[in-house]
């Protein structure tokens, strides 16, 4: 991991997430609900827990749309039913590059669609069946197909949580993934949104099987921060013990040093799971994730896709 220079920039925002007045009961409920969601992510609970309280009223949802030939080359598409969407968000979920499926994140699609956006959630192949960079190549293929078939004239945003932020970051910042599909990221990606992303991590023994030696040198998103890139929103909880917020601080600094527009939100009292679970309406007060994502998408939807300041 590269050393952080320790420079703090004036635009870095650190938010304290304050509970509402009924804070004792709310905090107990939040802790239980987030704990249950953590079980879902680890495969120990029912994947319908948060989705069970997610209604599709006012939305149109298409499931299992093919973007390629493999079994996991499928995506779900959420849209507001009564109005034209303002933008398209492609959300890549996390799961340590070895777990997860699009059906676990209905609450993400529904939450963003209710804000007026179309949302595509693709699956991608996982380790141990594949290694890096195959899952990133799958993500780029999904982007290409979704752009062709579902985006129309909508601005396209790439969003990811945890390993999904790593995958989405490489799709956005390393041109080798979209260029083979005839796509220029600077002219196509309206913005990148990373939630608790590992952008500059050590390939320890745990991760060596996922990132083989022959491709390991291309695995760190921060190495592609130089040059001109689309605007980025980097959000991280300061209580995250899975992916340290230092990754986001370093990525923010690297993008700014190269002259790229970045918004960084560091959330006090927010952990690794909280930051995405807060997109579900029962946990909305656990973190301001929906508000900061929505603000970023609306602001940048008004401008043509661009790179650099």
TrEMBL record:
Residues 76-173 form the BD-FAE-like domain. This is BD-FAE-like domain-containing protein. Signal peptide: none annotated. The keyword Kinase does not apply. The keyword Glycoprotein does not apply. GO terms for molecular function: hydrolase activity. InterPro entries: AB_hydrolase_fold, BD-FAE-like_dom, GDXG_lipolytic_enzyme. The chain crosses the membrane at residues 29-53. Keywords: Hydrolase, Membrane, Transmembrane, Transmembrane helix.
């Amino acid at each position: 991991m590269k050393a952080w220079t320790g420079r703090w920039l004036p635009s870095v925002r650190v938010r304290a997430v304050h509970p509402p007045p009924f804070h004792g009961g709310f905090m107990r409920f939040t802790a239980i609900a987030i704990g249950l969601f953590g079980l879902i992510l680890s495969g120990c609970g029912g994947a319908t827990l948060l989705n069970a309280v997610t209604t599709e009223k006012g939305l149109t949802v298409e499931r299992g749309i093919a973007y390629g030939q493999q079994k996991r080359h499928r995506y779900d598409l959420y849209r507001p039913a009564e109005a034209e969407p303002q933008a398209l968000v492609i959300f890549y979920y996390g799961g340590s590059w070895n777990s997860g499926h699009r059906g676990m994140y209905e609450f993400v699609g529904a939450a963003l669609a209710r804000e007026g956006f179309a949302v595509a959630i693709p699956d991608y192949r996982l380790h141990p069946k594949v290694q890096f960079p195959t899952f990133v190549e799958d993500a780029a293929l999904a982007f290409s197909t979704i752009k062709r078939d579902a985006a129309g004239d909508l601005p396209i945003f790439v969003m990811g949580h945890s390993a999904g932020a790593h995958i989405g970051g490489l799709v956005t910042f390393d041109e080798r993934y979209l260029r083979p599909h005839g796509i220029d990221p600077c002219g196509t990606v309206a913005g990148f949104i990373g939630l608790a992303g590992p952008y500059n991590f050590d390939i320890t023994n745990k991760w060596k099987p996922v990132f083989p030696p022959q491709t390991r040198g291309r695995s760190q998103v921060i190495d592609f921060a130089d040059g001109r890139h689309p605007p980025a929103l980097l959000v991280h909880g300061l209580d995250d013990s899975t992916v340290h917020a230092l990754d986001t601080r370093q990525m923010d600094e690297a993008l700014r040093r190269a002259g790229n527009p970045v918004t960084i939100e560091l959330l006090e009292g927010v952990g690794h799971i909280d930051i995405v679970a807060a997109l579900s309406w029962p946990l909305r007060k656990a973190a301001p994730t929906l508000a900061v994502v929505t603000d970023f998408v609306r602001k940048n939807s008004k401008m043509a896709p661009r790179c650099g300041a």
